[in-house]
Amino acid sequence: MKLIDLIKQKASALQPELIAIRRHLHMNPELSMQEMETSAFIQSKLTEFGIPFTSGIAVHGIVGLIKGKNPDSQTIALRADMDALPIVEKNQVDYCSQNPGVMHACGHDVHMTSLLGAAKILNELKDHFEGTIKLIFQPSEERFPGGASMMIKEGVLENPAPQKMFGQHVLPTLEAGKVGMKPGKYMASTDEVYLTVKGKGGHGATPELNVDPVLIAAHILVALQQIVSRNAPPQLPAVLSFGRFIAEGRTNIIPNEVKLDGTLRTFDEKWRAEAHEKITQMATSIAEGMGGKCEVFIDKGYPFLVNDDVVTAEARQFAVEYVGEDNVVDLDLRMTAEDFAYFSQQVPSCFYRLGIRNENLGIIHNLHTDQFDVDETSLETGAGLMAWMAVRALNPS
To answer: H-type helices in the chain, by residue range?
Structure first.
């Protein structure tokens, strides 16, 4: 039997176990840097599969190693993230979250399940490939500074150092059974922008006695939109959005200060730095011109994610071999962000998308929503394809 058929056979046989693993993880979500039980569960599975691992990396991170023939010849890495989101789940399913206010609404339960499934398959087939496969279970993708950067600082890309790396993420707009890829720049950098506008509060009926921070903040909010619409180079996609505007006054009480929180996304480090300066200059000068002050804090987050052209071309071919040409989709740029970007900027990588949509089952909801769910047939594809990519990357001929 051909190796690809053997992997498909093993992935199909694993499907009931994959569903059980995913549902356990979905029922027991944990927030960023709190993934203690999740980590323990993964460790128990790796132990069950007979795969050696190291735990406690970046607190709850885990690294497993599967050594094939001639293990020192080359190494590739596979990564899955572990954390959940602070969302109250509204799905009416048997595997609904049992942790109130916490939900796997970004598919990390699927990512972990796929990697565990791939690990089991690969460990059973380690006599069929040369080299070493590094399994990276990463905490805290959803929270700055990002578990990827923390694991890198603790040496996850060393001993052995991977020559290539693959990461997988679910995509609710893509049907189950399909996968999507994009070479080059794929996902944006992300920065958090915090503004505190200070004035002089007082009675709403005597505005002449006040310095109104609400009005100042409103002017700043509108003016900052020019940074993208009038300053960003047209060839560089960028987004500046504010989702929080807090002015804790009353109908007739003007507060002393207003807070605005937003996000900046882009694909160019030079423009990113310029945008930081423009935000600061514009916000502070507008506030001062209106008699107030504005404190600006920009928390520089994840870099943009770039898929290596060669590795992604290889991955696309591997995917075509596994799921067929019709089931491999070319993707567009995304303004969302991912801390896999830290890995992609140090190791030639491919971060690809796994389809999970099934309109007939009502599985249509977007990431980070309280009704997000997946077509669980995608688990077989996710585990099998990841195993096939690893084998093919180590044995290209």
So the answer is: 3-27, 36-49, 108-124, 147-153, 213-224, 226, 269-289, 309-323, 340-344, 378-394
pLDDT per residue over 264-306, tens digit each?
Answer: 999 999 999 999 999 999 999 999 999 999 999 999 999 999 9
**Run of H or E residues at 170:** strand 164-175
- The one-character DSSP state at 146 is -
Summarize pLDDT for 312-365 with one digit per residue, the tens: 999 999 999 999 999 999 999 999 999 999 999 999 999 999 999 999 999 999
d(CA 100, CA 92): 14
- Length reported for the chain: 397
Place of tokens 């990431």: 367
Neighbouring residues of 290: CB distance < 8 A, sequence distance ≥ 6: 211, 215, 216, 219
Which amino acid, 152? I
Strand, coil or helix: 59:
coil
Q: Please, are residues 49 and 120 in contact by the beta-carbon 8 Å criterion?
A: yes
List domains and CATH numbers for the chain.
Answer: 3-187+305-394 (3.40.630.10), 189-300 (3.30.70.360)
Residue 38 identity: T
Catalytic residues: 83, 141
Instruction: Copy the structure tokens of residue 375.
Output: 């077509």
